[in-house]
Every structure is written in C-alpha cells, then in structure tokens.
Write a structure and sequence with these properties.
The complex is a heterodimer.
Chain A: H1 4-29, H2 45-54, H3 57-75, H4 79-101, H5 106-129, H6 138-164, H7 169-173
Helix pairs in contact in A: 1-2, 1-3, 2-3, 2-6, 3-4, 4-5, 5-6
Chain B: H1 10-32, E1 40-46, E2 49-55, E3 60-64, E4 76-81, E5 84-89, H2 96-99, E6 110-112, E7 117-123
The chains are: A mainly alpha, B alpha+beta.
Chain lengths: ~170, ~120
Amino acid sequence: MTNPSIQKITRLALLLAIGVVINYGEAFLLPLAFIAPGVKLGLANTIGLIVLYYYGPKEFVSIGFLRVVLVALFTGFGFNFYIALSGWFLATLFVIILYSIQRFSIFGLSMTSAVMHGVGQIIMVAILYQTQYVINYLPILLFTGLISGLIIAVIAREVVTRVRLTTSLEEYER
Amino acid sequence: MNKLALKKTRFDIYAFSFLMIFASLMLVITNVFNRPEEDLVVNVYYEFNVIDTHELYANQSFVYKKDDFPRLLDDITLEITNGKVRIAEETSPLNYCSLQGWVDHSGTPIICAPNYFMVIIEERS
C-alpha cells in the first residue's frame, strides 16, 4: 500500500470501525446507567482523540459524525439518535474551538468533550420533551463527564504514545 | 505534524476548575429549585405528550399496551407505591428506565427513550 491517500482512508475506516464497535459494545460490557441514565465512560471517544492527534480536526469531525450515524444503523434512527447527535455536535464544537486555541492538551479537550456531550444530550431531551426537569440530571452528567474525560484522555495518550510518539502513522510503517 | 499536546497544561487546570465550579453550581441550583412540593402527581408522557396523570400516594400499577401506543417496543408496566414510582417492566436495548428503579421526588424523569415514554413526578397543574 503506497498511495498515501488510500493509506489514510483505510486507516480512518479502521479507526471508525473500532469506534463503532466500542460505542455499541460499551453499553453491554461497561454498563454505568445505574448511576444515572446516559452515564457512560465514552470509550469510543479515545478513537476521536487518536484521529484528532494523527490527522486533525476535519477528520475528527467526519469520523465522529459517521460513528454516530453508523451506530444508529444498529440501534435505530429514533429518539436515541437525536440525543447522540446533539451530544456529539456540542462536544465536537467545543473540542474544535479549544483545539484551534492551541493552549489545551489532550486532557483539557477530553474533559470538555465529555462534559459538553452530556450538556448536549440534556438540551436535546429538554427540547423533545419540552420539560426543564431533565436539568436535574445535569450535575451528575457534569461530574461523571469530568472523571470519564480524564480517564479517556489517559487511555488515548497511552495509545498514541505506545503506537509511536509524535510520529505520523506513515512514518511508523517505515 | 500534530498540534495536540499530550502533557497537561495550565489551561487544562483552568478548564478543570471552571467545569468543577460549573458542575457544583448546577448541583446547588437544581437542589434549590427541587424543594418538596405538596400536591404531587405522576405524569406519564408518550411521544412528548401527557397521556395520563396518576395519584402519587396510592398503591397502583398500570400497563401501557403496545397495541394502544404503537411506538412502544413492548408493553410497559408502571408501578406507584407510597409516594414513589418506577418502571417495573419494559423492553428496550439497554433497559435504562427499569434499571433506574424507584424515584420518589419531583423533577427527576424516568425516560424510556426507545419507547418514546417518560414518567415524571410533578406538581398538580
């Protein structure tokens, strides 16, 4: 495989596939919903951070969006899809803003992403049900988001460090 | 060349502090606005509309049939006992709403998203 663009597409497709499997499987393997509805570790976000690290914001947005859509192919394009989409949108928006500021590390981005994902989900539920009561879940989602964001950042950092520190995947193959 | 730093910066500390303060404020605000009320009922929502209102302080059980509410994945059993409510039985991929268990205070919804079904203790309006 010598064509760099084919290499890139293939690797992004692989990362996307891993993200979808993690996203779908996490709810069964690591159920945290007993804390509050919507609470989860968000392991699939490690893939997002890895994509952001190796490829940049455009690919980060594309892979994130495709992951939400592909997971919906398994779970359906109903209520859950809109909640996931709004969470993804707000989280991605803030990650891109912080990334462009160039002052935050993978930790700051991951924390903000996890927290904003929860906020986005709450906003969508509040809109769909036209009730302000779901805001009661917000503190739980904010605190758990902070913790999960830190855990995800540690995992993503370990992955990119072990795969190859500060080198592109192309260099890794040589 | 990537531009994402792997070592934490002082801006990460600022972000963490800001988010912690924000979360704590939200916790205080939601508790202040969540004062116990006198006249509470259980409102049942289907497809974002109230379809039923039940007395909270009564022991009762209700079954919402898929035949009557086609977007339910299957029948849903709602239980109300001594001022608390729960979804006793439901069908959904992750069973979030039945796992949530009993809810005994106003303002905390039990949401069965895949079923377009929600239960919440609210002030009688």
